[in-house]
Amino acid sequence: MSAAERPNQKGVWRQPNSNGPKARRVIDLHAHIVLEEGFGVAGRYGPELAADGDGVPYFRIGAYRMKPMAYRGTVFMDVDKRLALMDQLGIDLQLLSPNPLTMFHGIEADVAERFCRVHNDAMAEVVARHPDRLLGAAALPMQDPEAACRELERAVKELGLTAAHTGTDYPFPLYDPRLDDFYRTLVALNVPLFLHPASTDGANPPADERLNHFDLGLIVGYAYDESLAVANLVFGGVLERHPEVDICISHGGGALPFLMGRYEGMARLRSWAPESVRERGFRFEARKLWYDAHVEGEAARHLLLKAVGQERLVFGTNFGGWDTPSSPATAFDASLTPNAEKLMRL
Q1: Is 233 helix (H, G, I), strand (E, B) or coil?
Q2: Which residues, including other chains, have CB under 8 Å from residue 299's CB and lie 6 or more apart?
């Protein structure tokens, strides 16, 4: 970032080579990308972009097919189209993250590690071509925490990626002691972790058959996994053991705002709650996390604001997805920019 692009003491952005004030820039921290270089790298798991006998396009990972799904020629794979839509929606800077379908936390560790290396190399190349508009998050093989730490260090120190991005569902809980070195590595490298659910069971359809219809894997499955992630991080004592780690949960933490009172009540009742939660309450600890404010409707936003406060929210769009905003970023979206700058160390 050049000196001319930095905010003044009042936080007002000034356009380079201009004496006039500029509206605060908008930073989108929820934007996935699909990279051609990763196709086929995970062997029998793909990823594969193809069409069925009727010509309907699909995206396959393992035994799971998302259909219809045509990524080529869209903002997911065409960077010029991405930048054009960013301009249309008033987005100045965007963090690119892996496609949730390709988290691959449920496959063989060596295959996942190979895929993540290829994916991160390709991600770094895209970001390097547009450093003023794009940032990149690293994909990690979380089924092997030691390998995840190695790849995160490489991605940050050698490739210049500025965040980690994983699923919410590892082969073990988010509070498992095996992850303590991973959380320490995040802090040592000074990068945040973004958690986003996938609509698969590793590389298969969702384990709960009820989610395999009506796109409920996306609608209900995501909220389910996000809600569990918040509960596991807080009740599992991750924030107590690693107070300096920054973790951001997608879609406002799922059902967190609606369930906050129940989380609070159970924390007071049960002896298994960490000391920090028993002393200060679940809400206090949950507000140490960050949340992507990409939720549907004013009522949902109001609940989220009441639950965690605006200072823990960042702007996100699920860029290119079915629920991408159709109108330009609002004043509220821009008001979250200081939070994004703090979370991303800008």
Answers
A1: helix
A2: none
This prediction has a pTM of 0.90
Neighbours of 296 (CB within 10 A): 10
CA 331, 134, 75: angle at the middle one, nearest 5? 85
Q: Yes or no: say if 303 and 323 are a contact pair by the CB < 8 Å rule.
A: no
Give the end-to-end CA distance of the chain in Å, rounded to a whole number. Answer: 8
Distance CA(41)–CA(174), nearest Å, equals 27
Q: What is the pLDDT of residues 236-290, one digit of tens each?
A: 999 999 999 999 999 999 999 999 999 998 888 888 888 888 888 899 999 999 9
| Cα gap 226→252, rounded to integer Å | 8
Q: Dump pLDDT digits (tens) for 94-143.
A: 999 999 999 999 999 999 999 999 999 999 999 999 999 999 999 999 99
Q: What does the DSSP 8-state code read for residue 25?
A: P
DSSP for 290-339, please give it.
Answer: EEE---SHHHHHHHHHHHH-GGGEE----TTSTT--SS---HHHHHTHHH
Per-residue pLDDT of 167-205, as tens digits, reads 999 999 999 999 999 999 999 999 999 999 987 878 888
DSSP string, 263-286: HHHHHHH-TTS-HHHHHH-HHHHH
| Tokens matching residue 152 | 């995160």
Q: Where are the beta strands (DSSP E) in 168-229?
A: 193-195
141: left (phi over 0), alpha (psi -120 to 50) or beta: beta
Q: What is the pLDDT of residue 9?
A: 28
| 139 bridge partner residues | 165
Nearest-angstrom CA–CA distance, 107 and 62: 9
